[in-house]
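Hi F.,

I've been meaning to write this up properly since the lab meeting, where we talked about keeping a consistent format for the predictions we share between groups. The idea is simple: the sequence comes first, exactly as it goes in, then the C-alpha cells exactly as they come out, then a line or two of notes. No screenshots and no reformatting. I'm using this chain as the first example so we have something concrete to point to.
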Amino acid sequence: MSMHAETVLYASLTDVEALEQLSDIGLDAECIPLTGMRDVVAYAVDYFRRSGRAKAPSRELLIEQWGHRLEQCQVELPDEDLQIDEVYTAIEYLRSQHALVVSQALQREIAVDLAQAEPHERSERVHAAAAQWHELSMILRDRSSEVEGIQGLTDSLARYEQRAAAPKVLSGMALGIEAVDQHTLGIHEGELATWAGGAKAGKSWSSTNVARAEWSRGRETVLYTLENSVKMTYDRLACQTCGVDYRQYQKGDCAPEEITRVKDWLAQNEADLRDGLHVISPEGGRRTPAALINQAHSYGAKSVIIDQLSHVEHPSPGRKPRHEIVRDIVVEFANLISTGRQLLPLLLNVQVNREGIAAANKLGRLELTHLAESSEIERGSSWIFGLMRSDTEVAAGMATLQTMASRRMDLKHWRCAWEPWYGTQHALGEVTL
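Output, unedited:
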C-alpha cells in the first residue's frame, strides 16, 4: 500500500484537481518517505498556487527541473488519470504511516526517559513528552479548514479571477427558478439554505422542483421526504416534469395525451437519468442530522434536500426546550456540510406557523421574526428564502418569493407564477417589499 500511495502522490503533481486537493488538505514534508522527493512535491504545490490555482506543472517541466533528483530517488512520474478519492486516501495513508513510525519511537524514548529521570524531574519530562505528541498531531492535521495570512488572500484573489474569467455559471445547487439561480449563482458547497413557508404553501413542491433541477444537471441528488411518502413524492415529480395535473393524476383521470407525455419523457431520458436521484423516507431513529448527511455521503451526493425541519430528530433531546433542539439541529447540519472531506449544499424546508403567516399577511411580507426559533435558524443558514401566498395570489396561481437573509448577495424578491402541481414555478419579475 505504501508504494501505491507514493505513486498516487507523485501522479498528483501534474494534475490540477489533485494538486488542489493536496494544496488544501496539506501533507507535511516529513510524511513523504523519500526525503529527496519532498522538494519536488513542494515545488509542484507552489507552482499550482503561483498560477492562481489554475495550472499544474507538466510532466515535461518536472523532468526538466527535477530530472536528476527523480533519477536519484528512482522515481518515474506516472502518467495516469486520478480520482480525487485516490489522492485523499494516499494522503491519509502516508500520514498514518508517519504517525505509526514516529509514535512507536516516541513511546520507547519517553519510557526510557521517564525510567532514568529523578523523581523530581518526571513531571517536567511528561510536559516535554506532551509537547512532542502535540508536535506530531500538528504534522498530521487536515489543513483544509485553515489557511494562513498571505496564502489565504492569494487564494481569494485566484478564486475571484477564475470567476471573472468564466461565464456566470451556477456553482453548487440550483433552486430550479432561473431568475433566483442567476442571483444566487447556486447554493454553494458548505451552504445551508432555508426555505420557509406556511402550511400547504408549496414547500414540498419546491423541494421536488429543486430535486428534478439538480437531477437534470447530472448532479447526484438526495431528497429526504420526512413528511410525505416516497410514492407521493414520485407522483409529484412525474407531474411537475411533464406538466400533468397532479389532482387528476391521483384520481386516474388524466387526458390520454398527458400520460403520453410522461411515457415519452421516460423513453427519452431513461438511459441518461436512470440513476442519480435518491428519494428517501428514513424510519424513526434514523432522522438525526448526522444520520441523514452520512447516508447522503454514502450515495456520493452533490446536493441534499430535506423536507422538513420539524421532522428531523435530535440525537438526545432529553427535556430541552424546543428552541434549543432547533438550535442544535441547525448548527449540526451547518457543521456537517461545511467541514470535512466533502462539502455539501443543503436545502432545508422550515414551516412558518399560523401566527407568523397572519403577521406576514398584515405586513405584506415575511420577516425573520415570523419564523419559529428564527434566531436559531438564522445563525446556521447562509440563505433564508420565504414563500408567501396571499388569498389573492392563491386564486391567481401566484406567489411571492423573498430572500430574507443572505451572507453573499443583496436581498431580492420575486413575483412568481406558482402552480407547482402543473410544474409551474418560475419568476415573472422582481418586486420591492
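Notes:
The two ends are 61 Å apart (CA to CA).
The beta strands are 192-198, 221-225, 277-280, 303-307, 346-352, 383-388, 398-406, 413-419, 424-431.

If this format works for you, I'll send the rest the same way.

G.
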